[in-house]
Amino acid sequence: MAKPTLWLRCEKKEFERRAALTPTTSKQLIDAGFDIVVERDEQRIFEDAEYEAVGCKLVDNNSWPTAPVTTPIIGLKELPESTDPLPHTHIQFAHCFKKQGGWSKVLSRFHRGGGTLYDLEFLNDENGRRVAAFGFHAGFAGAAAGALALASRRSGEDLGLLTPFENEDAMVSKVKELLGGSGKGVKALVIGALGRCGRGAVDLFRKIGLDEDDILKWDLAETAKGGPFPEILDVDIFVNCIYLTSKIPSFVTREQIIEAGKLRRLSVVVDVSCDTTNPFNPIPIYNINTTFDKPTVPVDVGGQNPPLSVISIDHLPTLLPREASEQFSADLLPSLLEFPNRQTARVWTDAEKLFREKLAEAAKVEGL
Ligand SMILES: NC(=O)c1ccc[n+]([C@@H]2O[C@H](COP(=O)([O-])OP(=O)(O)OC[C@H]3O[C@@H](n4cnc5c(N)ncnc54)[C@H](O)[C@@H]3O)[C@@H](O)[C@H]2O)c1
């Protein structure tokens, strides 16, 4: 019988250096009897040679359309826009199940090609929790970006271009260096501290040297009294990491910021949750997503008050591609090992059922 195979495609999205399979998880799959085909990719944080060394078969960049149609293709982000039919099975984040812009066009490519899409965002365990998510490193990188913005602010500047770090140590060292050797003395508040992103943010603050008492960790119990919260104005960096599900009172408002005047300590807000355009956004002091080349947006604080900026980047784990990929891929591995039994393995049958439902909706919309 032919060995189960996975084909790791290249990523085409700008700045995306992460990978769905790492050399570590590729080796584990090979040891379990898989063939792993890897497209050469200069953009990826892992060297082609690292995959070759563990027994992967290297093929040309972006050659997956020529792969046998029975070979499943695994990647991370969306495929470049096109109208080409998709006959393969794809495992990836496709961002088209929640009726995002262009959703029906993307799905119509699968309809016309007869392919199947397993969306990584919708692979859930028996409790409905994602089997693999990037939250921890989103929080970690978000907190680091916040600390870098604070360091810039202390020098009277705005934070400039952010580029992915080679690894976590490089990120931690850079942040400490720019804060004058350590983050000691900085005070931070993390809301949603018990979640994936929140735990990552707390971890970064510990690693750059904040005193434990200077890392305020709030979750549902602490916000139950209802905002706005004056405590937010009393820290240097506020990181929001909640999973927003319904309308809640604002955590912080512009009126409150203006009223605090020059007494405000708060210098940077990092909105990891990034519910920027959600009408229930509990941080209604900004309204755009920021980017790696312009990471901060200023808040209108009124008069001569000290500046305040918001970081609202919605793809933060990209800043830490190596560790983020390793963690995500390791969490995904048990499900990938079950992939050859996808006709019966619950995680995959549930994901395929969802795909079929969305495909039918898209076909209607597209008149197919
Ligand atoms: N910016 C990015 O790059 C990026 C990357 C990954 C995830 N995210 C987003 O971050 C958010 C959190 O994701 P996660 O995986 O950490 O979720 P999670 O479910 O693991 O954690 C969310 C936490 O928020 C807490 N929470 C919910 N409502 C709260 C409230 N009103 N007050 C206080 N705490 C509250 C929960 O109790 C939980 O501990 C999501 O919106 C996700 O889409 C952003």
Automatic annotation (TrEMBL):
One of its GO terms (molecular function) is saccharopine dehydrogenase (NAD+, L-lysine-forming) activity. GO terms for cellular component: cytoplasm. Keywords: Amino-acid biosynthesis, Disulfide bond, Lysine biosynthesis, NAD, Oxidoreductase. The active site is at K77 (proton acceptor), H95 (proton donor). Residues 175-312 form the Alanine dehydrogenase/pyridine nucleotide transhydrogenase NAD(H)-binding domain. SMART domains: AlaDh_PNT_C, AlaDh_PNT_N. One of its GO terms (biological process) is lysine biosynthetic process via aminoadipic acid. InterPro entries: AASS (IPR051168), AlaDH/PNT_N (IPR007886), AlaDH/PNT_NAD(H)-bd (IPR007698), Lys1 (IPR027281), NAD(P)-bd_dom_sf (IPR036291). NAD(+) binds at R129, G195, R196, D219, T223, Y243, V272, I313, D314, H315, L316. Signal peptide: none annotated. It catalyses: L-saccharopine + NAD(+) + H2O = L-lysine + 2-oxoglutarate + NADH + H(+). CDD domains: SDH. The keyword Lipid biosynthesis does not apply. Its EC number is 1.5.1.7. Residues 7-141 form the Alanine dehydrogenase/pyridine nucleotide transhydrogenase N-terminal domain. PANTHER family: SACCHAROPINE DEHYDROGENASE (PTHR11133), SACCHAROPINE DEHYDROGENASE [NAD(+), L-LYSINE-FORMING] (PTHR11133:SF23). This is Saccharopine dehydrogenase [NAD(+), L-lysine-forming].
